[in-house]
């Protein structure tokens, strides 16, 4: 991921403006602050997720789970390669 062109303060201000605009849409508030409406929607969603109780622990847990799943997948692939190699060499030596 590259660096963001928007500061955390700018993002926080944009999210606060969205929440302070009764009846305001993502598109209208985004136009006012000069960002894409999907960018603002993502910032609002991220802010709401961060405000949830236990959000930091949950996101850390989710990150660890993703890493562990990737490691399991890698180990399963390695095991399959070794199994195939053992089968190949066993067949090779029994002539």
Automatic annotation (TrEMBL):
PANTHER family in alphabetical order: PROTEIN DISTAL ANTENNA
Instruction: Give TM regions.
Output: none
Naturally occurring in which organism (per UniProt): Streptomyces noursei
Its taxonomic path starts at: Bacteria, Bacillati, Actinomycetota, Actinomycetes, Kitasatosporales
State the protein's name: Transposase
Looking up Pfam families in the UniProt record yields: HTH_Tnp_1
Q: Which GO terms describe its biological process?
A: DNA transposition
Q: Which SUPFAM superfamilies match?
A: Homeodomain-like
What Gene Ontology molecular-function terms does this entry list? DNA binding; transposase activity
This protein's record includes keyword Coiled coil: yes
**Keyword Coiled coil appears in the UniProt entry:** yes
Keywords, alphabetical: Coiled coil
Which spans of this chain does the record mark as coiled coil?
58-85
